[in-house]
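Appendix B: complex inputs.
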Amino acid sequence: MAEAPEVEVLAQDLRACVAGRPITAAAVIDPAAVRFPPPDAYTRLLTGCTIAGARRWAKHLWLPLADTPGEGSAGEPPLALEIHLMLFGTLVLLPSTTAIAPTTLITWTLDGGEELRLVDRLGYARSAAGPPGELIERLDLATLGPDALAPDFGPQTLRERLQGRRGVLKSVLLNQRVVAGLGNRDADESLWLAAIDPRRSASSLSDEEIQRLHAAMRGVLQEGLALRGTQRDLFGRKGGAPHGRYVFERSGSPCARCGTRIAAIRMGGRNTHFCPQCQK
DNA sequence: CGCTACCTGGGT
DNA sequence: ACCCAGGTAGCG
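Resulting structure:
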């Protein structure tokens, strides 16, 4: 449920409503949800820290932490909290008195009687905490490709990133080390908009096709973000972006361009939806 | 590089 | 009763 637009929406909401607030307690309900440090150390580390901000880093959420004024831990190295929603994870901000859903993995209690909760019916979502350097190292964040939503992500960057990639285009686009931000839905929608066959070799695109693909990716991601994603935000309000617009999960429906039935195939373990007629 | 495991609830 | 899932690590 969480591709770049959905994660970005949550980062915005966190900046607006959670940044500046101290974490007064944290509870790890599913120990598997904490990558590191061990759950008891994780809760100890976070308790008493103030959430200083929030940003999206590829599909990760990254919350820099600051010492809470008056807690007396001045001089400690800075810390950050990382959260990855994986397929079905969601974050919710609720009054602490709200019953904890059985699919809740972690809760962070904030001052003022509210709680941030990580909920995931699949249980894949993960979090980690520590000094920024350690997080970057252990989560391999430095190897991520340029972010497709970043202002300076231009067609030239896309061309450089695809250059010499031997893999199949769709799979290469999903590789966050090549380009960060695209998920299965947005990759399919982008390839349809650019009228490019997902089965092409990543290195076979002409400059003109790269321009089209670049414009399509930007359009899909920016529109998804403008509509505040497909899923619920931090306050439970549903985003206005469609689950699938042109091809995603629309196999059998007529292509909006040529009327051919949208096809669905399996690529690299992922469902891939495309028009076999006009995506060349 | 491609495949599988990781899990559970929601959709069909 | 089945599948199946918008992601990723880790394996061969």
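Chain A has a mean pLDDT of 95.
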